[in-house]
Structures are given as structure tokens and as C-alpha cells.
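Task 17 of the worksheet. Students: predict the tertiary structure of the chain below and write it out as C-alpha cells. Keep your answer in the requested format; marks are given for formatting as well as content.
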Amino acid sequence: MNKFLLGLLATVLAATLAGCGDTGTKKEDSTPADTSSETSAVKDENKADKKEDENVEESELGKMTIVYKNKELNENAESGPMKLNVSAVQLANLEVAEDYKGMFDEKDKVTVITVQMKAENTIDETMSFYPDQATLTTDTGDQIDASLVLSDSVGGDFFGKVNKEGNAIFLVDTPAEEIGEISLNIDGSHDESFMNHGDKIKMTIPTK
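Model answer:
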């Protein structure tokens, strides 16, 4: 797969996480009540249409519909001197366009799980840590490794007190609507001599 197509895939699959839709989070409606039931009904219908449009992303890759999004997650974990923050998660159904089905094992549909994360080394010593190679499990029985070609480079060697951030992307078959919980399973950190400095991380995140 050439670099252009990889870039297209990664951009489309992760871009909606930074968008304006907030499926899965509550927002209070401060609009005053309208005395006309007919007018209110029209307004409610328009709001529903607008929300649906915000949660649908169409591109040459296909049609992606966001089912759940939480951009205020702020889950934290540590493995020795390495700190991990998961700030957002998104589940979306992708209806794959005909020309791109070969990239998804000829599947018509796939669920895209995007996890936004930041890893930080808190010491001067070089450490190795790979949250972008996490194994994801779901409460519906899925188990899948992060897609190395689609995910950002959030892991590897950390030369001193540095950090890396980006998106880890997972592709599963179960429809997003059926997934109520995901877990990230990440190997512990180690130094240049491959000596372990921290425990494995298991982070469980509700997605409903």
C-alpha cells in the first residue's frame, strides 16, 4: 500500500475524533421553550438532522458514522517511569467504498475504534514503551492488535524526558452499537538492556 493511501486512510479514520460531534456525552439545551408545538417540532427535527450530519463523515474511503465519542476521557496509568494518558475515544461504523474493500479484507463494513493517547517518559534514561501496539479487547468478545500502518507513532524509544501523542486505531467486526466496554492491554516499559521497569497496563473504558 503506498504512502498516499496510508495517509488517506489514517486521516479519514481518525479525523472525526477532533470534530464537533459529541455522541455519547450529555449537553444541556439552553434554548427557551417555544409556545408553538408545531414550531418546536420543526426545530427538534432540524436539531436531529444537524446532529446526524455532524456524526457522519463521507469520503472516497466510504461512509463513517460515529456511534460513540468521548473527548473528555482523561484516563491515566503508569508503567515504571512511563506515564500514559488516554484523552479521547471514538467508535464508528465504516461502510467501505467498493474501491477500498481490498484494504479491509473485502469487508463491506468494519468498526473503527480510535483511541487518542499521550505517553511520557519522566526520567533522563532512555525507556522503551509501546502503547500504540496495544491489544484491544471488547465486552463482545473481540481481540485485536492496533493497526501499525494506520496508527500514529505513540510508542518506541523515549530518549529522556520526552513525550509522544497521537491516535491508536483498531478495526473490529462487531457493530459499534453493540460494544459497551473496551480494554487496552499494554506491555510494561523497559530500558535499553531490556530490563523491565514497570508492570503491564490494563485500562478499561466504557463506551456507552
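Marker's comment: The two ends are 34 Å apart (CA to CA). The chain has one domain: 3-18+38-206.
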